[in-house]
Design brief:
about 475 residues, alpha/beta, single chain, 2 domains, globular, 13 helices, 3-stranded antiparallel sheet
């Protein structure tokens, strides 16, 4: 313990131990263990480069950016249905061969939603209020049945929500999935610092730590041994999605097929941006590499620019759905390849802290900096990256905010619209409003149907067809 304390003092971070002598022996051990996990060399570099550095953010990137190419939907003007058919077959074969794992990043703190609990336990479906985790579990189970192979599911947590997440699955019998196929592991933590780069204390004996961003998923997959486990199980394709998006196709055979046909290390889905200011990152190309430029970094002139057909030129919005090659994750996540490291980004946040007198200060304004890695920063390092178009209404409706855009309400409406589209395509008469939301509140389990065709087949097979009325649940 003494040596950790000494190192911190030598590095100008002695304030972490300011109240050490007033702590019990157990508390001292906890603090020393937290401190020992912090890489002070790395932190020093981040503080001098990001917190104190000029952070060359204003460099004009406009001239070096081009829009990234993407594969349009099969029914788009320049779409290629035969190619999509080929991709579908390829992806289905990989699923039947048991090469695919699902991977959800659920280590975030979900502060905008303001819900007290891991976000995956938040209820989202229109009738039963099934949790996000249950929705994904049923989708994964449905795919496992279709392709005849159990699909392992890896879930990234953080130490802040890990135990609660695991307990939720246990209480709910893993929603019908074989428990040995569901794997939980925690991501790394980074300390919050003040404007001088000094590490903040959350309590006298606890450091202010927060998850290292969804980009931390890659090193967590390696550190936790998950990548080795996948290799032993013959898994080389990892289907990545975020915990907040109930519409996501957790397992999408055509997407997996495109990834394989192109020998891609990292594949991504895009949706055309709804309007120039939409707050999504945009797929671009720079120096012959693909990358995602955050909405806040995309120069206004480019965000507004139109092509000859009148579409936004930089329209390929990133919706955080990817397929990763296992070896690629190992290369980036192990940190062995010096030339392929995810950078950290800085977030200026309000962080409550304990001052040198032992008082807890709750700031009104952002007072601290957190460090996060972003998973899409892996893109420039990937060989043969592929971007495919997807229909927003069938893949993307995140729950981010308590109200307004990307909220439980918008996501519920989007789920209902999808059920209504499937029902109508199956020949069922259904009254909807102008935006496609049905007048009755009903729900379709992914186990009944996870797309229009399978919905229609299950509906057809029903000997007694119920009326689509309020409260109906099709399972
Ligand atoms: P968001 O960027 O929406 O962050 O995460 P968040 O923490 O969930 O929510 P806010 O910003 O505090 O409101 C997008 C996805 O990345 C995961 C989240 O769990 C979510 O699935 N994530 C984010 C992590 O797994 N780890 C992190 O450190 C951050």
């Amino acid at each position: 313990m003494e040596s950790v304390r000494q190192t911190f003092e030598e590095k100008g971070q002695g304030q972490v131990f300011a109240h050490f002598d007033s702590l019990s022996e157990d508390e001292q051990k906890v603090l020393a263990a937290e401190a020992a996990e912090i890489d002070l060399e790395e932190l020093d570099q981040l503080v001098s480069g990001l917190v104190k550095g000029s952070g060359s953010k204003n460099e004009d990137i406009a001239d070096s950016l081009a829009p990234a190419e993407f594969i349009p939907l099969p029914d788009a003007e320049n779409g290629n249905p035969a190619l999509w058919e080929e991709a579908l077959k390829k992806g289905e074969a990989a699923l039947r061969a048991g090469r695919v794992a699902a991977f959800t990043v659920a280590g975030g703190q979900g502060t905008r939603l303001g819900y007290d609990g891991p976000k995956g336990t938040f209820g989202v479906t229109p009738v039963l209020q099934k949790s996000l985790f249950q929705v994904f579990a049923e989708k994964i189970l449905a795919s496992s049945k279709i392709y005849g192979k159990p699909i392992p599911w890896y879930i990234l947590t953080s130490v802040i929500n890990h135990d609660e997440t695991v307990a939720f699955f246990e209480e709910n019998d893993y929603f019908g999935l074989p428990s040995e196929k569901v794997h939980f592991f925690s991501q790394g933590l980074m300390p919050a610092v003040d404007g001088e780069g000094k590490i903040l204390l959350a309590e006298k004996g606890r450091i202010a730590l927060s998850p290292d961003g969804h980009g931390g998923a890659l090193r967590a997959l390696v550190r936790s041994g998950s990548i080795r486990e996948m290799e032993a199980d013959g898994i080389d394709i990892i289907s990545y999605f975020q915990v907040d998006n109930p519409l996501v196709r957790c397992i999408d055979p055509a997407f997996i097929g495109f990834h394989l046909l192109n020998h891609s290390e990292l594949s991504s889905k895009m949706v055309p941006k709804a309007y120039p200011e939409e707050k999504v990152g945009v797929f671009c190309e720079k120096d012959d590499a693909a990358l995602v430029v955050e909405y806040s970094d995309l120069p206004e002139r480019l965000a507004q620019e139109k092509d000859d057909a009148g579409n936004l030129r930089f329209r390929a919005g990133s919706i955080a759905i990817h397929v990763f090659d296992r070896n690629f994750i190992e290369r980036l996540g192990s940190g062995n390849d010096e030339s392929a490291r995810l950078p950290f980004h800085l977030a200026n946040k309000k962080v409550a802290y304990v001052d040198s007198d032992g008082n807890t200060i709750n700031p009104d304004e952002p007072n601290a900096f957190k460090f996060e890695m972003f998973v899409f920063d892996a893109l420039p390092f990937a060989k043969n990256p592929v971007i495919i178009e997807t229909a927003r209404e069938d893949d993307f409706s995140p729950v981010k905010n308590a109200e307004g855009v990307d909220s439980p309400q918008t996501s519920r409406d989007d789920q209902l619209r999808q059920y209504a589209r499937w029902a109508k395509a199956a020949g069922i008469e259904l009254d909807t409003d102008d935006t496609g939301v049905p007048r009755v509140n009903f729900e379709v389990s992914p186990l009944f149907g996870d797309n229009a065709e399978r919905f229609a087949a299950s509906w057809e097979a029903l000997s007694h067809k119920p009326a689509l009325a309020d409260g109906l649940v099709l399972v």
